[in-house]
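Reminder to self: tokens first, then the designed residues, so the page reads top to bottom the way the pipeline ran.
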């Protein structure tokens, strides 16, 4: 074999080895890419699962519940101020139809004007009185400053008085 043939054989073998090395490097790259791709996919599936759990948690209502005393009042001067047909919110009512409005007065510790969590017009749920009085009400009035931790349900004159302890006042 001539020197020229030897050089051509060497070049041919060299390039074949380089091709093999390039193929090996490509295989290593593909393997590591595939491994990291699989890891990334697994992490994405894990994050997706966590996201579903968080979305479920966010859909659950986050209610604040207060334990209060529940009483009732009539829109008459002896149980209110000098304007029994006007509530603290400024709303006017027809006293004979008071039970139909489903309005409540809250003690001042619950009214935002005095640092509480509720504004006039907010809705609350009440549980623990009776089937007749449990339900949704709108905050429209304020109680005497001496009373705390109490909800007072506005009822039509003639409705029997009641008082219930450990009633749930629920922010909705």
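Designed residues (172 positions):
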């Amino acid at each position: 074999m001539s020197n020229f043939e030897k050089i051509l054989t060497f070049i041919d073998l060299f390039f074949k080895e380089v091709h093999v090395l390039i193929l090996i490097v490509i295989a290593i790259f593909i393997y590591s890419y595939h491994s990291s791709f699989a890891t990334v996919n697994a992490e994405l599936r894990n994050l997706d699962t966590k996201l579903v759990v968080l979305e479920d948690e966010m859909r659950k209502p986050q209610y604040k519940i207060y334990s209060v005393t529940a009483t009732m009042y009539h829109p008459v001067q002896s149980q209110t101020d000098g304007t029994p047909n006007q509530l603290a919110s400024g709303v006017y009512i027809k006293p004979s139809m008071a039970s139909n409005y489903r309005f409540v007065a809250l003690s001042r510790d619950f009214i935002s004007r005095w640092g509480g969590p509720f504004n006039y017009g907010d809705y609350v749920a009440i549980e623990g009185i009776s089937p007749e009085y449990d339900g949704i009400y709108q905050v429209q009035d304020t109680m005497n400053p001496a009373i705390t931790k109490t909800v007072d349900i506005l009822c039509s004159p003639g409705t029997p008085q009641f008082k219930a302890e450990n009633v749930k006042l629920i922010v909705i």
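The helical segments are 3-59, 98-101.
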